[in-house]
Amino acid sequence: MSSVQERNPWPYALGMYLKLNIFIKYFTLQVQGKIPEWLEGVLYRVGPGTFKIPSKKNPEIVFSFDHWFDGLGQVHRFEIRNGVVTYRSRNIASANENYIAENGRLPVTDITFGQDICKNVFKKFFTVFQASVTPRNLANDPNQRNVSVTLTKGLPYPEGKSETKVTRTLVLGTDANILKSIDPVTLEPIQNFSFEEFHPDLSGPMAPAHSQYDAETGEYFSFVPNSGSRSEYNVFSVKTDEETGKPVTTILATIPSKLTQCDFVMNGAKILWERNLIRSFDPWDPNKKAHFYVIDRNLKKHVATYTSPTFFCFHTINAYDEGDDIIIDLSQFKDNSVIFQLTINRLLESSEIDAEKQPQKFELNRLYRYKLGNVSKNLDRVNLNYGNEKFPNAEIVFAVSEDLNVELPVVNFSRYHMKKYRYVYGVSRSDSNSHFLFDRLIKIDLHQTDNGSFNHKIWRQFGCTPSEPIFVSAPNAVEEDDGVITSIVLDGTKNSSFLLILDAKSFKEIARAEMELGKVVPYGFHGLWNDLD
């Protein structure tokens, strides 16, 4: 690969242009290589797909979303059956799009990251959230509400809703207390609902897009930060009762706190998280501590708190017990500046400017491993008087270097979630890439070598922007990395996308399924693999 190529702009902007086409009807992709015979299922993807909406009254007037996170959502479905790959997609907020086209503004039910992004972001965001996004304001139209960050399968459905197999199958989430069920085959939105419909104490306006799931117990875990006269987190679990078929919701702990938002992780017996996302809109104070809360699932109470130097984190990776210690892995930034850099104009500008001419490089994140030591000896140290706290430290076991940065991290979830594991997969940026969007996939071996470094493998192709990798375990797998990695890749040199399949062990390409030129899957957030029935 020539140095001239490396200095050229990285062509990912096509994934953020006006409005990308949707394909409600299936079409077949062209397969190169050989898809493993055992690999049959559906890969779903979700993320923003519409960023500019012309006015119906005057098409020259165009409403533009300012922030990448705000684009109206699309969901995508890649089905692999008998070595053949088919694709379809659908908008999941068409009512919002119609409203904007007619009125030139967002509906009152919507929230955004990008309103006046350079002017007191937290105040603006919080005002919009408080004024409009409450469960009582949910629209009846399932095509309203932009819910497009994560996908979950098998989440119990609130009692009193339509309890068909379809509505139980696929649920979209976002960083608000709003969920959207969709048909797993047609992708058609079915219904909006909230966590308040599971339990009246879960009425706050926000909730994390990322829930946690325990495959052994069938429980889903999340939390809702409540606001008002008392600011607190309600951490809860929900599962389907085997006898009645109805959802059972349990409040595990209520923790007084400032209103914040974050991702969180879970090990076998406890739930853990670090305060983060909405707090990131506060003026950043590097002297404040990050807090790790430990909640005992059996005792149903908050049992310990640990602190560390402050950081910003989009995604946790995994957590597990190691004797009396808890190990937590996550991908972190040193501060919250990345949020302010993810405007559409900044990203498009980055794509169109040579790397060596970039006015400001995007920050690289790093994989950190923390240890919450001697948990049993630190139980009940939960005084939440923030000014006088004396919590034990969360020990930094190691930090992987920036040249092995990893985002949208995944593991072999089906076999190693909440267990000691070795391999993490994700998207990454190479040293020569000063643009924000990622130019490679990475596999990192977390067993350190004798000199303290980490073995790793890379997949990279010039002009190609990969999405979050999804690990699919091989049948009768023996080793942790027996399986494949799937990722949707935008090829900016061909103006088309393809489904990439890598051997997870060697990290070598074994097949790809290509779209026709001009057919593009926009660069989204998260995906989900579901085996064929």
TrEMBL record:
BP terms from Gene Ontology: carotene catabolic process
Superkingdom classification of source: Eukaryota
Record protein name field: 21907_t:CDS:1
Transmembrane segments: none
Residues where Fe cation binds: H210, H315, H526
Protein source organism: Cetraspora pellucida
Keywords of this entry: Iron, Metal-binding, Oxidoreductase
Cofactor (UniProt): Fe(2+)
Keyword Iron: yes
Keyword Metal-binding part of the UniProt annotation: yes
Record's cofactor remark: Binds 1 Fe(2+) ion per subunit.
GO molecular function, one term: carotenoid dioxygenase activity
Annotated family: Belongs to the carotenoid oxygenase family.
